[in-house]
Amino acid sequence: MADIHFCAKCDEIATKFCSVCKHTHYCSERCQKDDWKIHKKGCKIQAQLNIINDAHHEQLKNTKERPPQGKCTGCNVKFTEDYPCSDECSECGYQVCESCEVHQSRGTCYCTNHNFGRKYCAMEPRWYHKNGRTQESYKGDRHPTEEGYIAEVYEPKERACNNCGEVTKVFKKQYCDFREFSSY
Fold it and tell me: pTM for this structure?
């Protein structure tokens, strides 16, 4: 299930996008050419923003720096005896208060394959299974511990999970994506 975009010129469903800014969508070359006078001003700015955002994303991806201790990484509140740390990831050092722990993005640690030690491979696919620093989604195997899935969702033979190494039946690749899983 891909995202649907609409043409910046005529509002029809768009299948193409500007090759410079990669942000503005069009249904045809004709609409793109007709829109150029309006689009060209913002196009160069968006292209520069893409360069900055890509560099920032790469920097975040390569950062191993641990967050400061003693305060919530999600909201920056200082922990006290009355308001203690609710959870801490031993791998990345992310700490959360009880309010941020249940938040869909602030409650996600910086690790790519798990959240506070709870492995994504052992859970049903969800849109919020991602790295809290880079927002990169988990793309590994899935073998939820719950039962009740039809045989069709599993690969035919057991094998080692590419995340945890456990030898088990894993989901077929298409069911590892939350968009496909939710439609099954």
Answer: 0.62
